[in-house]
Amino acid sequence: MIAVVQFGGSNCDRDAVRALSDLGFEAERVWHEDPLPEETTGIVLPGGFSYGDYLRGGAMAARSPIMESVREAADDGVPVLGVCNGAQIGCESGLTPGAFTTNASARFQCEHVYLRVENADTRWTAAYDEGEVIELPIAHGEGRFELDAERYEELEADDRILFRYCDAEGNVTDEANPNGSLGNVAGVLGDSESVAVLMPHPERASLPQLGNTDGRGVLAGFEG
Fold first, then answer.
1. pLDDT tens-digit profile of 84-101?
2. Which of 188, 192, 173 is nearest to 143 (CA)?
3. Residue among 118, 142, 193, 201 flagged as catalytic
4. How far is 218 from 200, CA to CA, in rounded Å?
5. pLDDT, tens digit, for every residue of 1-22?
6. Into how many domains does the chain fold?
7. The domain containing residue 213 runs over which residues?
8. 201 among known catalytic residues
9. Which CATH number covers residue 10?
C-alpha cells in the first residue's frame, strides 16, 4: 500500500491517490500525526501549502511526527516520492540534497513546462528514454532549486539529476527555466535511488481524460 502523507495544508493528496489508483496501485491518505501503516510499500509527500509555507516551504512539515518514520522507511529501501511542496519537505528533512527557494520571478508560477529526462536508469524514469522530453504542469512560488557548487558537482557526477527544464526540442536554456533553478534542475535523487523529489506534478498529468499522461512513468516507479 502506498501511503500518501497528508499534512495541514496539503491539497494534492487526493490527486495523488486518484492517479496511483488509476495505475492499479493501492493508495490511501495517512494523516501526518498518525503512524505509517505496517503494510506501507511506498510513500508520497504530496503538493500543497503545508502550514501555509510559514518560515519557508516544507520547513514545518519536515518536522512533523511522521517524518521520522518516513526517513526510517527510506533507509530501509521503501520508495519515497516528494512532489512540489513534498519536494520542499524532502529537502528540508534531509531526504534529498539542496533546497527549493523563491522563484527568480518572485511570482507564483502556474503553467505547463517541458522536462528532459537526464537519467533513465532509475525506478522513477525507467519508463522513459534518456533525453526524452515530457510535459508536466507546475504550480509553485518556491521552486528554484539551489545547492552549493561542490555538492552540485557531486550530484552531476553521481548522475542523480532526474529532470531538467527544457524547451519542446529538449534544449536546456535560461528561457525554458520557469523559476531560475540551478542548472535547470527540476528533479533529483536522494542518496538512494529509491528516494526522489521533483517540483512539477506527475499526478496532474496521469489521467487520460485530462489529455496528458506524461507523468504516469514517474508514478510507475512504485512498481520497483
1. 999 999 999 999 999 999
2. 188
3. 201
4. 11
5. 999 999 998 999 999 999 999 9
6. 1
7. 2-223
8. yes
9. 3.40.50.880
